[in-house]
């Protein structure tokens, strides 16, 4: 493993199917951030309204065939950006490539994302406990990449009331969430003020998702 993936600081199984690849994206962070900048020029960060009437603390945009949106009518994936009426910016090859390599390092072959969701957290912003269930298939894993300021990730269980573990996620960390962990509750504690990391005074999280395709890859996942 060390020979194949020298970029991984440590591999930690958080729970069955959830694998933390410490520092996996660190060496690529600057090009990933340049791609985020280019995406946000075409599809600007915005703060979606929640179904409950609130506003999300994290700014969001997306790339690839699908973007995730919320507007008070509910949460869903759309093939066009409601802000511009245009298709979402194309998924940069380095995004899809990195997500595929991370999934492979965690034991999944054939991960090809259809959505690259980009979340931006200013200091003080967090994300409440939730499940990701808007994808038509829960078979494929989700790959997430943390950039910039560190976060305390809240890792719950299958039920909202399950106890939460606090997992620090740092610049360059990648987590692959698959199998039974795919439907666990999770959230992000408000980002704490800290010296800039890689020139960033905020945190970005990229999440890569399969939205409406059956997952034909291999690895720990729910059967058809
Ligand atoms: C576990 N984002 O966008 S990434 C989200 O840091 C989201 O921006 C957080 O939760 C963030 O939905 C957490 C980690 C993550 C993402 C998706 C998951 C964990 C997951 C889907 C299923 C299980
Ligand atoms: Fe989520």
Helical content stands at 10-25%
For the record, give the distance between the C-alpha atoms at the N and C termini, rounded to a whole number. 29 Å
As laid out across the biggest beta sheet, the strand order is 1-2-11-8-13-6-3
Per CATH, the superfamily is Alpha-ketoglutarate-dependent dioxygenase AlkB-like
Residues in β-strands, percent: 25-35%
Query: Ranges with pLDDT <50 over ≥5 residues?
Result: none
Task: Tell the overall outline.
Answer: globular
> Mean pLDDT, nearest integer?
91
Instruction: Report the total helices.
Output: 2
Q: Gyration radius, to the nearest Å?
A: 16 Å
InterPro entries: Alkb (IPR004574), AlkB-like (IPR027450), AlkB-like_sf (IPR037151), Oxoglu/Fe-dep_dioxygenase_dom (IPR005123)
Organism: Bombella apis
Pfam families: 2OG-FeII_Oxy_2 (PF13532)
Domain Fe2OG dioxygenase: 111-212
Question: How would you portray this structure in words?
Answer:
With 224 residues, the protein is an alpha+beta fold. It has helices at residues 29-42, 93-105, and strands at 11-15, 18-21, 59-63, 67-70, 75-78, 115-121, 127-130, 142-148, 151-155, 165-169, 174-177, 186-188, 203-209. The chain has a seven-stranded antiparallel sheet with strand order 1-2-11-8-13-6-3, covered by helices on one side. Strands 7-12-9-10 form a four-stranded antiparallel sheet, with no helix packed on it. Strands 4-5 form a two-stranded antiparallel sheet. The chain contains two helices and 13 strands; from the N terminus they run E-E-H-E-E-E-H-E-E-E-E-E-E-E-E. Helix content is 12%, strand content 29%. The chain has one domain (12-47, 58-64, 90-209): Sandwich (Jelly Rolls). The model has no long low-confidence stretch (mean pLDDT 91). Bound molecules: N-(carboxycarbonyl)-S-(naphthalen-2-ylmethyl)-L-cysteine (MD3) and fe (iii) ion. N-(carboxycarbonyl)-S-(naphthalen-2-ylmethyl)-L-cysteine (MD3) binds next to strand 6, strand 8, strand 11, strand 12 and strand 13. Its cofactor is Fe(2+). This is DNA oxidative demethylase AlkB. Residues 111-212 form the Fe2OG dioxygenase domain. Keywords: Dioxygenase, Iron, Metal-binding, Oxidoreductase.
């Amino acid at each position: 493993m060390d020979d194949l993936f020298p970029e991984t600081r440590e591999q930690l199984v958080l729970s069955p199917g959830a694998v933390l690849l410490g520092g996996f994206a660190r060496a690529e962070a600057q090009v990933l951030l340049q791609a985020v900048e280019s995406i946000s020029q075409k599809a600007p960060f915005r703060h979606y309204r929640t179904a409950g009437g609130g506003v999300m603390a994290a700014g969001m945009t997306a790339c690839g065939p699908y973007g995730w949106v919320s507007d008070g009518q509910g949460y869903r994936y759309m093939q066009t950006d409601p802000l511009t009426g245009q298709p979402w910016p194309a998924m940069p090859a380095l995004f899809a490539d990195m997500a595929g390599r991370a999934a492979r390092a965690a034991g999944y072959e054939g991960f090809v994302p259809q959505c690259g969701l980009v979340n931006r957290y200013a200091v003080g912003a967090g994300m409440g406990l939730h499940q990701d269930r808007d994808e038509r298939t829960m078979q494929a894993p989700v790959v997430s990449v943390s950039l910039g300021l560190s976060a305390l990730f809240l890792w719950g269980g299958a039920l909202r009331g399950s106890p939460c573990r606090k997992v620090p996620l740092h610049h360059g960390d990648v987590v692959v969430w698959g199998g039974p962990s795919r439907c666990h509750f999770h959230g992000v504690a408000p980002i704490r003020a800290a010296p800039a990391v890689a020139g960033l005074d905020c945190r970005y999280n990229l999440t890569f998702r399969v939205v409406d395709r059956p997952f034909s890859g291999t690895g720990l996942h729910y059967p058809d």
